[in-house]
Amino acid sequence: MKRAYYESDLKDFLKQDDNFILGELVSNNQFALEDLQRNTWQEEIIILKNELAILDDGYIIFEYTIPRIGSRIDIVFIYRGLIFLMEFKVGENNYSKQAADQVMDYALDLKYFHKVSNNKKLIPLLICTAAEERNVEIRMMEDGIFNVLHCNKGNIRKTIEQITMVYHGDHFEATEWTQSVYMPTPTIVEAAQAMYRGHNVEEISRSDAGTENLGATTVAINKIIDYSKECHRKSICFITGVPGAGKTLAGLNIANERHKFDEEEHTVFLSGNQPLVEVLQEALARDESKRNKIPKKEAERRTKSFIQIIHKFRDSALTSEQAPIEKIAIFDEAQRAWNADALSKFMRQKKGVPGFDMSEPDFLISIMNRHSDWTVIICLVGGGQEIYTGEAGLGDWFKALKNNYIDWDVYLSNQITDSEYVGESSIEELLSGKEYKMVNELHLATSLRSFRSENVAAFTKALLDVNIQQARRLYEKLKVNYPLVITRDFETAKAWVKSKARGTERYGLLASSGAKRLRSEGIWVPAEINNLSWFLNDSTDVDSSYYLEVPASEFKVQGLEVDYSVVAWDANFRYKDGEFSYYRFMRSQWQNMRNEQNRVYLKNAYRVLLTRARQGMVIYVPKGNDYDPTCKFSFYDGTFNYLKGIGIEEI
């Protein structure tokens, strides 16, 4: 598929017959052509020929496709080393914020993910053809992206000339730009939408080490599936990865590839993370309803078969001894499966099943073990991600395999021996005699979430482990591309993220579920939030993340992401005397948290919060108040001084 519907040297464009240009646009259009679109193209051709006629050079491109999400830029005009991005609103007499955000999003996408555009100046133009002329305030930001400039059909040339009188760019070949490598890093929502449309991971992800890693993991998993199928084996694979490395993306990619209905090879992607499942299902339904013009309810029914909540899959197995239709089951965040005590209690109290004594890993393997010939389980494992009481970690998976499924083949990531995955135990101890195979490609080492820096996860680990020298070294690398600052003023923190975000880049307020005394600062951490509005709705919705009024806890953001975050740090996890101390707020006072597992959950909660932002983060540490015994200065000063001592810039 061509990147553009039409492209030409400006001189040739001006000479060519309007109907010839329109014919090129129509012939390259992949969608049903409506009269409105045809008329829009005709009007754009006339306007641009009038406005650009006296310019001495240039290259013009109609309908340039952004591969990641299938969006198309109306017009790209390359002139004197500058790239003008034009969003036309033919007949519009009002410059809307939504349209301005749209063209700014194009500029941001090209700057970060389109290789040749990376060091170029990008000028977004919103052209509302029937609007009044506005005074043009030209401002270039530090990354070479200009503010959105507003034009009507009669002042496009004047605006271009105003810019080129002041700003210049080095000459480059336009064909080099149109054929540039595209290196996107989608959000998990964008990735799920693209894969549901039939794209694979290579089409929607960066063409660098991160995607090579994802591709290698997919190849390794496919080999294991094919071997299991051919040799009638039952296999289980454990994929590990740093936060944001694309474990969920890898799982969705495999689920997308292995839907071979004609071969009776059904695959299901399962997650116990209800907020993630709800957000992805809603995003898929909205996208399909809009694209295919079908009722949203119908779209919802379809999308819920692609991504399912793990508990429904588990509970359906209670009513039947039959093997599930799926031969391949992908379990996201497998380390969060319930241990035997938690699941037995749930089954007894909620499902009326007395005497149930299996852990969730044991029960899930037993469901897939019902297949008589072959089956594959793929476990996606995050290091240091357990945040709920009753989560088993990996121990119960290995215990079940060792005790009950001797004939299963086990494939492990070569990094699974790290303490973040198995704690103080060893693989030899956990599997004690059961054979397994280490596969290097089952570890995802490169963070895709933080496309500006791959050091966020490592920096967060060093910070939480109080590895000060390592944290300092990583921060020096981090701050080059990933702004990370601290403040003791909440309004300053909010203003910072608002100033950083452009277009529809999403920002939000995050805080630990145990941050009970942030209430004194006006920050209430609710047990429940409107997940769909918070993550998916735009800045006009008061329930959206943009309002910075409703904080999302670790339970709501795990597996999801924002572009910029405000992380509010309370006294439940405070630094003093060279280490972090763990507290729970009970009644009217802080109490030491003595249970080791609960301390792990709290540390992991902050790990989740500190790794949610793709592009930058501000940490807000309150000043405290010595008149309030629950919010003393000393509860917060140690943490703030520790973070500042690492080198984090104060604003």
| Helix/strand class | alpha/beta
Strand content: 15-25%
- N-to-C CA distance: 48 Å
Instruction: Give the C-level CATH assignment of the largest domain.
Output: Alpha Beta
Strands, count: 22
Describe the main β-sheet briefly: 8 strands, parallel
How many domains in all?
A: 3
Determine Rg (CA atoms, Å): 27 Å
CATH architecture of the largest domain: 3-Layer(aba) Sandwich
Low-pLDDT stretches = 206-210
> Which percent range fits the helix content?
25-40%
* Structure annotation, total helices: 25
Mean pLDDT: 88
Overall, the morphology is globular
Fold-level CATH name of the largest domain:
Rossmann fold
Protein topology:
Blueprint: E1 4-9, H1 10-15, H2 18-28, H3 35-52, E2 59-66, E3 71-79, E4 82-89, H4 97-113, E5 121-128, E6 149-151, H5 156-166, H6 174-178, H7 188-196, H8 201-204, H9 209-231, E7 234-241, H10 247-257, E8 266-271, H11 274-292, H12 296-303, E9 307-309, H13 310-316, E10 326-332, H14 340-350, H15 360-368, E11 375-382, H16 395-404, E12 409-413, H17 419-422, H18 427-431, E13 437-439, E14 443-444, H19 456-464, H20 468-481, E15 484-487, H21 490-500, E16 507-511, H22 531-536, H23 554-557, E17 562-568, E18 573-576, E19 579-586, E20 589-592, H24 596-609, E21 613-620, H25 633-646, E22 649-650
Parallel strand pairs: 4-5, 5-6, 7-11, 7-12, 7-14, 8-9, 8-10, 10-11, 12-13, 15-21, 15-22, 16-17, 17-21
Antiparallel strand pairs: 1-2, 2-3, 3-4, 18-19, 19-20
Short description:
By secondary structure, this protein is α/β, with parallel strands linked by helices.
Task: Tell me about this structure.
The chain is an alpha/beta fold and 651 residues long. The protein has 25 helices and 22 strands. The strands form four sheets. Strands 7, 8, 9, 10, 11, 12, 13 and 14 form an eight-stranded parallel β-sheet that branches. Strand 3 and strand 4 form a beta hairpin. Helix 15 (360-368) packs across helix 16 (395-404) and helix 19 (456-464) runs antiparallel to helix 20. The radius of gyration is 27 Å and the shape is globular.
